[in-house]
Amino acid sequence: MKMSGNTVLVTGGSSGIGFEFASQLLKLGNTVIITGRDQARLDTTKKKLPTVHTFQSDAGDPKAIAALYAAVVKQFPKLNVLINNAGFMRKINLHAAGNELEDLNSEIETNLSGPIWMVQQFLSHLKTQESAAIINVSSGLAFVPLPISPIYCAAKAGIHSYTLSLRAQLKGQSIRAGSAVDRNSAGGYIRSGRFDRFKGDASR
C-alpha cells in the first residue's frame, strides 16, 4: 500500500500513540483526521499539527460513531485508512467490594466494542476505495496480561482476536487489516511506528 496520498482517520489522536500516528502520517504526505472526546486537547493538537483535521467524538458511543461517519465521509470522501487507537487503561482490584458492574465494562466499550463499531460503520465506505486499510491498536498485554489491569488486557486480547478474523474475512478484498502492537509482541503489524508492512505480508 502506498505511504502517501492517503486520507487517514485516527481515533484518540490527540495524545500518545494516536498523536504519533498523526504526526508521522502527516510528514509522509497524507491527509490526517483525528478524533477525541476532549475539545481542548484537540485544539492543542491542532496548534502542534496545523494541517491535521479534528472532530470531537466518543469512540465508545455508537450514536457518536454514526454521527462521525456522516460528517467525515461527507467532508473527506476519499477516506481510505482507519486507525482505531482510542482507548484507556485502569488499575482494577477484582476483590474490591465497590466495583459496579456497569463501570467494569467501560474499558470493553472503548477498547473493544468501539473499534468493532467503527469498523462496521466505515467498512462499506472503505470498500469503495481502490486501496484501503484498517489498523486496530492492540498491546503486548494482549499476550502477557498485567494482573493489575485485567479488563484492559482482556479487551486488547479481544481486539487482537477480532482483527485476525477481520483480516481473514477481508481476504481478496481491496482492504487490508492488521493490529499495531509494540515491537516485542506478536501481531498483525510488525511494530508500532511501522506503517508499511504487515507480518507475513512483507512483500507488499
From TrEMBL:
Q: Which PANTHER family match?
A: DEHYDROGENASE/REDUCTASE SDR FAMILY MEMBER 7B, DEHYDROGENASE_REDUCTASE SDR FAMILY MEMBER 7B
Family that this chain belongs to: Belongs to the short-chain dehydrogenases/reductases (SDR) family.
Tell me the classification of the organism that encodes this protein: Bacteria, Bacillati, Bacillota, Bacilli, Bacillales
What are the record keywords, sorted?
Oxidoreductase
This chain belongs to the protein called SDR family NAD(P)-dependent oxidoreductase
The record, for Pfam families, names:
adh_short
Query: What superkingdom does the record give?
Result: Bacteria
Is Oxidoreductase set as a keyword in this record? yes
User: Which InterPro entries has this protein been placed in?
Assistant: NAD(P)-bd_dom_sf, Sc_DH/Rdtase_CS, SDR_fam
